[in-house]
Amino acid sequence: MSNHSAHWQKNTLFLTFISLLLGIMIMMAVNTNAAAEVKVDNDAAELIAYIENIESETAALQEEIKNTRARIEQVQAGQMEDQALTSAAGETLAELNSRAGLTELTGPGLIITLDDNSVGAELAQKNNPSTYNPASYIVHDKDILYIVRAIAGAAEAVSVNEIRVVDTTTIRCVGTVILVNSTRLAPPYEIRAIGDIAALTAALTNSGRYNSLLYTNIPVKYTEAASLTVPAYTGAYTINYSQSEE
Amino acid sequence: MWLPLLGLIVGLLLGAIFSFSIPIVYANYLAIAVLAGLDSLLGGWRAVLEKDFDANILLSGFFVNAILAAALAWLGDMLGLDLYLAAVIAFGIRIFKNIGAIRHGIIFQHRERQARKKEQQAMHYLSKEHE
Lengths: 246, 131
Hints:
- The structure holds two protein chains of two kinds.
- By secondary structure, chain A is of the alpha+beta class.
- Chain A contains five helices and eight strands, in the order αβααββββββααβ.
- Chain A has two domains: 1-99; 104-230, Alpha-Beta Plaits, CATH 3.30.70.
- Chain A has helices spanning 2-99, 118-127, 141-152, 197-205, 208-215; strands at 105-114, 155-160, 163-165, 171-174, 177-180, 183-185, 189-195, 220-230.
- Chain B has one domain (25-130).
- Chain B has helices at 2-18, 27-49, 55-79, 84-130.
- In chain B, helix 2 runs antiparallel to helix 3 (55-79).
- The longest helix of chain B has 47 residues, at 84-130.
- The interface between A and B is medium-sized, with 27 and 40 residues.
């Protein structure tokens, strides 16, 4: 009987041990399952919060759009009133830009060309080498400057070899090179002027320099053009010292 | 006989208190292992009732069945087949068979005890009559 009892106790202990193990395993499985469900729930909750955030953001943005539209309407209403003024100011600006030489201009006018008297220079060198003065046979910066100034009153726009002549333009020489707006020029020189052709011709032919050039046999001639183009001024207008009075 | 049940409850409590858990990916395998373990435990109880209990068979059955069932479920995942269902059905059937056998065993044991009691009482009366 005692032997049987000891055996029975041993069996019961084994069964108890297995039961204990199984109990822990069951709870592990249950916990894991619950954790999985919680995770899914968390994901869903996060997603819902995210969506709600986006929705509130969207609402805020829509409100902003509404406000902006209202402001646009307001500004447009104001613009209507200003528009007449603005267009007048724009026209004035375009006019001033064109006067300042900042735009390319087209119109009828005169093309005056000057060149060095190379033929006369060769002859003089050959025939009278003792009295030969090369300076008498070339075009000088002063020639161009005086002719430009002579026709300036009758011209609306003037250029020398594709260089626009403006208020601040300098025409001078450095050594044997003529500079206009600090750009070096080479003969032949072509002066273009837009304006009334008759007035331009009169201004040119009446000028002292034109006649003295003709007298010294420098090749100078002019042609009338129904339409010619004067390029825009590409330099800068720098104002460092002057201030306009209000 | 109440000690194993107490063990089960203590195990459940321990698991609940310490809230062990494993990575979610392995949840299926653990569930299958639990099913196999439950089958082994009920088989052990049945063996006790049928006086056929062997501790080695119980222990080896508990661990080997649990591991093999989990391995089968894993293989099913690898193959893209729901092989764990095979384990669920197999162990489910065995669990119900074991429960049936345990029920039978408990009833027979009870009847045996009653019969023995009556026999003892009858013997008691007989011996009294002899006196």
